[in-house]
Design brief:
With 284 residues, the protein is an alpha+beta fold. 45% of the residues lie in helices and 12% in strands.
C-alpha cells in the first residue's frame, strides 16, 4: 500500500455513518452501536462481499470498478455532486510530484468587469481567498477585501457570522464547496494550512469537515442582517471564470423594486468608487 491518504475510505466511512437503517430499508432490531449503516450492511446492499468493502474503507484496495462505486453510491444515497466526488476518489490516477502552489491573480479584464458592476461583486479563488472586490461588496461586508479568506472569516470572525441570518446553512454550503474545489489535492500546503487552522479554532468547521460533504459552488438566496440598512434578501450567483483553476465571480443582486433593492441602492450611494483588487504579478 502506498503512502497516499485514504481519501476513498474516509469518504465511504463518513457517508455510511449518515445513512440510517430506516433510510436504507433495513429493519432495526434492538440497540445499535453505530449511528448509521454497518459495513456489512453496505456490502450486502451493494452486492459485494463484506471483506471487499472492508478493504475499500481501510485503503487496501483503491481501484474499485465504476460498477462497484455506482452500487455503493446508490446505497449511500449519493447523488449529483456527492456521487461524482465518490467516482473521482475511486478513479485510478498516477502519482504526481507535489506542486508548489501558484499564486492566484485576477486578469485585468476581470478586474474591469468587477469594477463596472453596480452590485456587490468579488472574485473568489480556489482556496476561497478574495482576489478582487468592488466597493459595494466591501460595503456589504468589510471583510470582502483583497487578502481576506472567506473560510477564515466565516468561521472565526464574529462580525461576519452576525451578518448572515442563516449562518449555519451557509457554513455547510461553504465547506462543501471548498471540499469539491480542492478535490483530491489534499497534500496542497495551503489546503493543509487552512484545514488545520480551522479544525483547531472552530468546532463548527470540525463538525462539518468530518461529514465529508461536497457540493458545487453555486448560487443561492442569502439573507443578511446589515448593521447599516437592516435586513437584506439578496440572490447570490457564483459564476466560473473561464481559463482559471477554480476562480469564480460572486455577485449579489436584489429583486428589482423590492425593499432589498432600495437598501442596496442606499449602500451603493455611500460606497467609495475605488475597488480592492489583487493585481497579477508580472512573469519573470
Amino acid at each position: 500500500m502506498d503512502d497516499r491518504q485514504n481519501l476513498l475510505g474516509e469518504y465511504l466511512r463518513a457517508r455510511r455513518e449518515l445513512v440510517t437503517p430506516e433510510q436504507a430499508g433495513i429493519p432495526v432490531l434492538g440497540m445499535r452501536r453505530v449511528p448509521g449503516l454497518r459495513r456489512e450492511e453496505v456490502a450486502m446492499l451493494s452486492g459485494i462481499s463484506a471483506e471487499y468493502y472492508l478493504r475499500l474503507e481501510q485503503g487496501r484496495d483503491r481501484n474499485p470498478s465504476m460498477q462497484v462505486l455506482e452500487s455503493i453510491a446508490r446505497v449511500l444515497q449519493l447523488e449529483g455532486d456527492t456521487r461524482d466526488y465518490l467516482l473521482t476518489l475511486g478513479a485510478a490516477r498516477p502519482r504526481q510530484a507535489r506542486r508548489r502552489p501558484r499564486k492566484e491573480a485576477v486578469s485585468p479584464t476581470i478586474v474591469r468587469l468587477v469594477d463596472s458592476l453596480q452590485v456587490p461583486a468579488f472574485v473568489e479563488g480556489r482556496y476561497l481567498d478574495v482576489l478582487a472586490a468592488n466597493a459595494l461588496a466591501t460595503a456589504l461586508s468589510p471583510r470582502l477585501v483583497v487578502g481576506r479568506n472567506r473560510l477564515l472569516d466565516f468561521f472565526l470572525e464574529p462580525a461576519e457570522q452576525e451578518l448572515y441570518t442563516d449562518w449555519e446553512p451557509a457554513t455547510r454550503n461553504l465547506v462543501a464547496g471548498f471540499r469539491q474545489s480542492m478535490g483530491t489535492d489534499t497534500d496542497d500546503p495551503r489546503f493543509v494550512e487552512l484545514v488545520g487552522e480551522l479544525s483547531i479554532a472552530s468546532p463548527r468547521f470540525r463538525q462539518l469537515w468530518a461529514r465529508h460533504e461536497v457540493g458545487s459552488r453555486k448560487g443561492a438566496p442569502m439573507r443578511f442582517s446589515h448593521p447599516e440598512v437592516g435586513e437584506l434578501l439578496l440572490d447570490r450567483e457564483k459564476l466560473a471564470i473561464s481559463g482559471t483553476e477554480g476562480m469564480v465571480l460572486v455577485i449579489h443582486h436584489a429583486e428589482p423594486g423590492s425593499e432589498s433593492a432600495d437598501k442596496l441602492a442606499l449602500l451603493a450611494s455611500a460606497a467609495l468608487p475605488a475597488s480592492r483588487v489583487a493585481h497579477p504579478t508580472p512573469s519573470p
